[in-house]
Amino acid sequence: MIQYKGVLVLGALIGAGVAVLLAPDKGSVTRDKLKKEGKEVKDQIVNDFNEVKEDVSKAAKSGKDKFKEDLKEFASKTSYKTEQAITFLEKQLAILKEKNKTLQQPS
What is the dihedral of CA 11, 14, 17, 21, to 10 degrees? Predict the structure, then answer.
């Protein structure tokens, strides 16, 4: 999309240059036309830039929101897996305590 806009702007500039070279008008009239066309091209470039900037901003925000969502999901999954690991370790610890009791001799 950006490339096409650049091509259009370049085409407009080339067209304006050719028009000036082939124009039968006086210099002052030609200069006025050039100013007008230059302003139009500048306005179009500014509009195109603002549009691209807005598109990039939307994409960045969307990416940021997606990242936050993915991070939240990852934290949830990690917490669940951590809980499973703790439960497993607690069971193993209980088994070890029972084995250790059998090894203790009354004093």
Answer: -110
